[in-house]
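User: Second chain of the day. Same drill as before.
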Amino acid sequence: MKKLFSTLVLIGIFCCGFIAQAQTLKFGHINSQELLVQMPEYKEAIDSLTKVRERYANQEEKLQVEINRKYNELVEQQNTLDSLVLQIRYSELQDLQNRLQEFQVTAGQRLRNLEGTLTTKIMDKLKDAVSKVAVELDLIYVFDLASGNPIYSSEKSINVAPMVKDKLGLQ
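Assistant: Same format as last time:
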């Protein structure tokens, strides 16, 4: 009987320790999108992507102009050309169209890769700053409101954005 009573007392003390510890858990939240747009690295990345996108658009436009020019020439000369020459010209036009499509696909892939690379570096910097603030404040979790988590944010949740801004040197 004494063993049972001692065991129950130990379990009670053990559970009280867990309950007391659970009451001290702290959570934080942040809106990463709001911070990202304030980071100079983000603005530089957007500028860089815009420049590359414009270069690709210019090249695509040049290819399209060339295709249109050759097509118009072909239409004008169509009645005067031999069938063999006409077939070659149509083939050349088709090759140009294929090159344009290939260029569009490749340019799109390169832009997505560049965006991913730039975004990863910036997000890593942001995550590093959030981690440092979370450690300083002894937080268990920091939720990102930009991703839709959580649906509810209690007033007890700490908005760590101002401290992360300090870590990132933003104001």
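The longest strand covers residues 27-30.

User: Great, on to the next one.
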